[in-house]
Amino acid sequence: MSFKQIFSTSTIIVIGIFFILIGHYFQKNYLTKPNIVFILIDTLRADCINPETDPNPITPFLSKFAKQSIYFPSAVTPCSWTKPTIATLLTGLPPEKHNVRYSVRNEDPTAPISDVLSDAFTTLPEYLSQHGYETYAVQTNANLVPLLGFAQGFSEKHFIFVNDAPASFVTEKSIELITSTKRPFFLYSHYMDPHLPYNPPPQTLALLQNTNETSEINEKYIAPDVIIDYLMELVYYNLGKRSEPPSHEYTQQEKQELKRRYHAEIRFVDTQIEKLVNTIKKKFPNTIFFILSDHGEEFWEHKGVGHGTSLYEEQIRVPVIIHSRGIEHKRINTPTSIAGFAKTVTSLINLPPHPQFEGYNLIEETDKNTYIEMLTWGSWADMGLNLKGIIKYPWKLILNRNTNTTELYNLTEDPKERNNLSENYPDIVCDLLKHINDVHHNETNAPSENTTALPTDIKEQIERLGYL
Fold this sequence. Notes:
- The protein has 468 residues and is an alpha/beta fold.
- The chain contains 13 helices and 16 strands.
- It has two domains: 31 residues; 350 residues, 3-Layer(aba) Sandwich (Alkaline Phosphatase, subunit A), CATH 3.40.720.
- A hairpin with a 5-residue loop joins strand 8 and strand 9.
- Helix 6 packs parallel to helix 9.
């Protein structure tokens, strides 16, 4: 064979290999279904991401990322604490239908039981798995363990749980799980750090300015176990189940310090999410990212702290970021509910939503006349809460179903919910109550409540998070 023939043959082979590689690249990154990365930042208030503030000391990455995405600065969660909210996100059903209400039913303190997400429902991971997706999860909240039904749709080796693990662990394990995947994947990464008791890495805490440097702060009352004890005392006192107020009343300086530590936890998560997102975007450019929170956090705005105790804005408003290659960057200020998460995910990958998935597509629904619902029974049964809320912008109604009393707020004129207008606008109260009653009347019967006894290790993990 002549040199010319060898050269020609080699050239044809090289060109062939080139086109094969190009074809593989386009097949992988343009013709296959997109990957889905669901990043849940536990306890992140909506006002902690603010792209309009430059520089933003709390979330520099997420604030920048929001500008490159579809960004909802103030979405609404279906419940003001984690477990019912995640059950809604995974099943597409409102809490009153999936019937996951409590972390603990501790009528018998020696043998507490917990609600279980019924396997009668099809979860989003199950549905995606049925349509060719590999599913992975890194879970760090003890209320969402496999025993309680939250690993449906994940194989055992693809569902990693370590209670309250730091953000660095979540990022590392998430990257490790998807490294060798061959199919399009769904990854659920749950970052727990902003949740009580606020114990950020010292180096991250040092990044946020302490405005109380001249004031003395007793570190004793900032300790994680003391914070949890205070929370429990305050909750029971505010609910009238405890006659004495908490043994220690936090000073203004101590309150500010707690919030600084909360912000530092968020800053730590922000750096780890940046690492996760950039790693995945580099290796898997055909990926859709959903970044959101399950609920907010109160810092004495309505005499309480924490979450799961009310339906005020500080507990129910959350941010949502949806990002993918080629997606139109826009900010959607219209109030919207994250209850339509499952339907939105399937819509963006051109998959018909499962008939069970309710709610509405977050991206397509921009009508301010939409009714948005939320509720809470509290995170443990003996709190005795039964609150239902509804928003039809600018009005927000909170119904206490135990006492049949209402609170009505105009969110435009009174965003901090200081002025109850129920007596001033009876017609609006009546309209919103009618919608609540109509929805309740039309609901199908939920399955019987499923519960299971809590093993000692899970009980202790839940207790450390302030749920016992």
